[in-house]
TrEMBL record:
It comes from Xanthomarina gelatinilytica. Gene3D superfamilies: Aldolase class I. This is 7-carboxy-7-deazaguanine synthase. PROSITE patterns: RADICAL_SAM. Transmembrane segments: none annotated. Belongs to the radical SAM superfamily. 7-carboxy-7-deazaguanine synthase family. The gene is queE. Substrate binds at I25, Q26, G27, R40, T84, P210. Its cofactor is Mg(2+); S-adenosyl-L-methionine; [4Fe-4S] cluster. Binds 1 S-adenosyl-L-methionine per subunit. It comes from the Bacteria. One of its GO terms (biological process) is tRNA queuosine(34) biosynthetic process. Pfam families: Radical_SAM. S-adenosyl-L-methionine binds at W50, C51, D52, G86, S127, P128, K129.
Length: 210
């Protein structure tokens, strides 16, 4: 395959820079505690300084993988497939999700929403970042809004984002892991004062699982 042929397949979403895939327990948000197969796609230019998967940023480090191969692996493990990153919407997600749906699987995505929404999704977890805001389209389609709290200014940003999502979107505040001892009490106090929000924790880290 020539470089141009490979790039054409990448552009179409038939090849994706696969960083890792694994079967585990969803640790965050609405579906926490449930079994899911995670597909982590490389490539992200949002650049959060506290990102705990910085090795996902450079797509070039991760091998372009056929969507058929990803689906064939996923179907062995779980009915729920979580596509995460990196920023998965950097790429065309339609071929991957179409194939997953043809196998009768549930498709979930974890995204900053910074790029055009592609793919067929049963659940959209939107986690906006200040450096590259979501597209207007995804606000109306998100099922949950997960706001990472690193410092007190993030509460204001969280409210700005909550004002944009649809009325049925579930609102979560999640402490940034390295600051959890400081911000958890602040989040608890905030949620008690603003009960439209719920607390999300990275329970997989407490369980010491991927």
């Amino acid at each position: 395959m020539t470089r141009s042929e490979r790039q054409e397949l990448i552009d179409k979403g038939l090849l994706l820079p696969l960083m890792e895939e694994f079967y585990t327990i969803q640790g965050e948000g609405f579906h926490k505690g449930t079994a899911a197969y995670f597909v982590r796609i490389g490539g992200c230019d949002v650049g959060c300084h506290w990102c705990d998967v910085k090795e996902s940023w450079l797509a070039e480090l991760h091998p372009p993988t056929e969507t058929e191969k990803i689906v064939a692996n996923a179907v062995k493990y779980s009915k729920t497939i979580v596509v995460t990153g990196g920023e998965p919407l950097t790429w065309n997600m339609t071929p991957l999700t179409t194939q997953l749906k043809e196998k009768g699987l549930q498709t979930h995505i974890e995204t900053s929403g910074a790029y055009k929404l592609t793919g067929v999704w049963d659940w959209i977890c939107l986690s906006p970042k200040k450096l590259k805001l979501p597209t207007e389209e995804i606000y109306g389609k998100a099922h949950e809004l997960k706001m990472i709290i690193y410092n007190k200014s993030d509460f204001k940003f969280a409210e700005e984002q909550a004002a944009k999502v649809n009325k049925d979107c579930i609102l979560y505040l999640q402490p940034e892991w390295s600051k959890r001892d400081k911000v958890v009490p602040e989040i608890v106090e905030y949620v008690m004062a603003n009960p439209k929000w719920k607390v999300s924790l990275q329970t997989h880290k407490y369980l010491n699982i991927p």
